[in-house]
Amino acid sequence: MRDAHSEHFPGPIHQPPLASNVDAIQPHDHEELPHHPKLQHHFDDMAQQVEASTLGMWVFLVTEIMFFGGLFTAYLVYRYINPEGFAEASHHLNVTWGAVNTIVLIVSSLTMALAVRSAQISAPPKTQVAWIGATMLLGATFLGVKAIEYYDKFTHHLVPGPNFHWEGKHPAPAEMFYSLYFCMTGLHAIHMVIGLGIMTVIGFMAWRRTFDADYYTPVEVAGLYWHFVDIVWIFLFPLLYLIGGHFTE
Amino acid sequence: METLNYLNNGHGLKSWLLTKDHKRIALLYLVSITVFFVIGGFFAMLVRLELLTPAGDLLTSETYNKMFTMHGVVMVFFFLIPSIPAVLGNFLIPIMVGAKDLAFPRINLLSWYIYVLGGVFTLVAALGGGVDTGWTFYTPYSTAAANGHVITAALGVFITGFSSILTGLNFIVTIHRMRAPGLTWFRLPLFVWSHYATSLIMILGTPVIAITVLLVAAERGLHLGIFDPALGGDPILFQHLFWFYSHPAVYIMILPAMGVVSEIVQAFTRKNIFGYSFVAFSSLAIAIIGFLVWGHHLFVSGQSVYSGMIFSFLSFCVAIPSAIKVFNWTATIFKGSVCLDSPMLYAFGFIGLFTIGGLTGLFLAAMGLDIHVHDTYFVVAHFHYIMVGGAIMGYLGGLHYWWPKISGRRYSEPWAKFSALLVFTGFNLTFFPQFIAGYLGMPRRYHAYPPEFQVLNVASTLGASILTVGYVIPLIYFAYSLFAGEKSVNDPWGARGLEWEIPSPPPTENFTVSPVVTEGTHQYVHPNQEVGLA
Amino acid sequence: MFTNFPFFPHQASAHAAQVDAIYFFMVSVTAFFSLLIAGLLVFFAIKYHRRDDDEVGAAIHGSLALELLWTIIPFFITMLMFGWGAMVFFDAYRPPKGAMEIYIVGKQWMWKAQHMGGQKEINELHVPVGRAVKLTMGSEDVLHSFYIPAFRVKADVIPGRYNVLWFTPTKPGRYHLFCAEYCGTNHSGMIGWVEVMEPTDFQAWLGGGRASDSPAAAGEKLFQDLVCISCHRDDAQARGPQLKGLFGHTVRLQGGATAVADEAYIRESIVNPQAKIVDGFLPIMPTFQGLVSEEQLLQLIAYVRSLGEVAAPAPAGAAAAPAPGKD
Amino acid sequence: MSDGQGHGAHAHIAPPSMYYKVFAALIVGTVLTVAAAKVDMGPLNNVVMLLIACTKATLVILFFMHVRWGSRLTWIVAMSGFFWLALLFSVLGDYVSRGWVPETMR
Fold it and tell me: What is the structure's pLDDT at A5?
């Protein structure tokens, strides 16, 4: 039989012989330092765990870039085909609301970054929660403004579909523009809602004194997500709101 | 005495459904993709039975269209894409990199639940009356004209996409951050390299199809008009976005199979791979160049000629790394110690069929020739040579190779050899005639066809019956081996690699102590080799 | 029942021979490499089969020379295929000048053809042997694909735009016409026949049918019915650009851009008039989307085209300006 | 993986003043974008608008998301995301080049 092969061909790894297979599932404390309570069993140490988590979030953000990328590509192509129609349609978006929301999101990114920093320097839970709460408040403000805008579009028959009504010269490209507008801002808004959900959990954890200089990965990773959603808006704002700036009827 | 391993460490449904052990999750995937394989196979059999006669007499046209649509959707999204990565990759990658688990065990479990949820959506669509868009969901048919539950099916694909993304994410982080000390990139098994390349496609491509099918669902359900020609929408834009993922998706299916074959060829020649770095980098090259060739699906769609030329050129380029792999496998066998056990038979089958499948792909990359064969049975034959002759052969080969590790049991080798032979014969009889039918001009997705194509179609259906038998037999002997199979030792094949150094089946945390690696994991010959130092 | 089963399609166009040549070349390459690999696998498996349970393979790690060899040789073979394939494609892509024109409209699930003489056909297409034929194709609903295997030609038919297909039949006969892009329930019923006739027979066929108006004549009628004529007049006070001599020429647009007045341009100007406004005119034309069918669009185009044949030098300020570099 | 405890030496903790400076730059960028959109610069409008947006995004990525102090792998992952996005945008090439070939041989 073949059972003896491993004796004939010494393996490339060094591994102490298994006393019994039971050993394999026993916790093994072969390091002098006590483990951090937040260290998951399958990581060797906290550094590995931190690196894995941040890399994981970055990789996820890359998929998010591609996810929004499909919509941006559609925008690019149709705007290339209908520059006039898109400018005309964009003219009917409210630049003021868009600009206000841009500022709101940028401030929320600042508070988010400061929330991460407060965890990094082991600030008291109250400070951490305050920054996180401020971020959430700004996020909710953004969604509120968005809701006003959506309602406005709804009352002006600018929602694509059978009720879409356009007085201008380019009804078809305008409906295309508003299809893209709702898809892009809608997807972004969904990301904001998810972000608020994440921040709720993070805020709760901060309240429970989870984070300090030794362990703040969840805040940091949630922050990466929040900043990403901000970046998407940084592009959406000019591409959707500002291309009709000097449009003449 | 029963030693404790991942299988008997915890009993009951809950210990499986809430497990975070990558090996148990791999088995959850194994069971679920097998279910979908059977469903997809059932649809395929109905398609083949209908095509026995030129007239559309067994099913109505609408039913036939739903059958090939559901066959495609189920096989592509619910069997082929998760097959090797989610089952074998999930089971083996942590072990091969010397880790206790994947980087994110909970996300791994989540990805299985997402997969199941997507599957439920698809099954609801199938049972609730089906969908007849074709697996490609081309607009404006899918948005404006199709019958059945397009939105439900599209959401099924959308949801299951995230399962694929999370699996890829987990693999990438694991391979980057969880490797055992000393296990450098160029000591990694080629299986890991090919899964790394696969994961890149999963995370970079899948989101694009996710948003694309979501837009189709939104256009059908909410009347948003992203692809609507009446609003100036371009159906070709849909095709661009669809194939931006769906062409690389073919490499999601074939790259892991290439990794499996690289492992099997080394194990059954007891020889390290010929040209390790070429084989490793060709995986990355396929993944990256594979992202640049999607436009060869659009040669007759009205795409710009210049785009077509560039895509044609790049499509030929992606053939080169594939050729490198085939030549290197062949060279590995040279002066090996060749043993033709069932995994090796599947690997041989893979190399031969993939060669034909790859070369016939060149026919489709040549623009002038593609005009004729595009959307005919030639294409159907070509991609089945890659997906069935390639990916499924690789999957079955890998399953046979690692079955003793996964289950701790040996299966019946004579039966395995017999079924490998059946699969090979049945496969060729099914799909080779389709090349001829395709060049004759038989279009794909035809419910009824002119009578002069009948001989070829009868041969094809006959082959499909043999193929079915070839697929059912392993199901039986694998199941039988679980209860009555001979117990396997750690390393039943005399193979190299970390997975063969630990017990069969492995303990829950794989390694008692994190292994320390001092050289490539697949070295068979060490004249005066010092055993590594920790 | 199994009589008459071919293994190779009819070769009935000039283009078919070119496609078949590249096909045979690629089949040879495929056969050579497949047999080479299969032969080597079997040969090695026999020659080096495991003789002893403890045996291991030779310590060979690779060879740069070999790797380069089997990188470079396949590269050159594939580049040959690429160049050849692209040449054949270009040839099939651009119709020769003076080709016989036919309009095709695809709809679920039939092919409608309209000859310039007014003959209409459904799921049939009669063409003379030895003469280049150019099809201008549009779709009423979803994607279709016009495919004649014996000619080795195929092109998708896309709603909202025109695709062109051309061929020169070389052998009289009756050949399959398929829809190759899945288009719904009766996709496999969207088939027909292409009848390639001797030129004299074709002339007889053209004369024999109950020809309706030619597309241009039908288009002219539409032009009156839809009162296009009230704006697109011949005089200088016209509110719309003059159409005489327009077709095929370059048009100067508002904002300085230019466009060639081809089928796609005229189609767009009818269904989406605001997209390209001719310099010097107001954007006042309403859309005719939904008011005219694809067939009628093609008739209107044929009418505009027929005006183009009496091309006079464009008067100052009018839309059409002859493009010197064009011919 | 030197220390078994937490982020330790890996983490860079920036002073709050840096965050406020970056924030100020982002606000200035936003104001500039809105102002620039009111001026008709022809096709340059798009260029200016996208340049500002890219600068803002870069600032957020480098400073708020700490890539400035991140590992080489983080840089590569972040860059590859945008690289692949550019690849996806190359779809536009089809539309730009569609009119390039004359429809008939002459």
Answer: 39
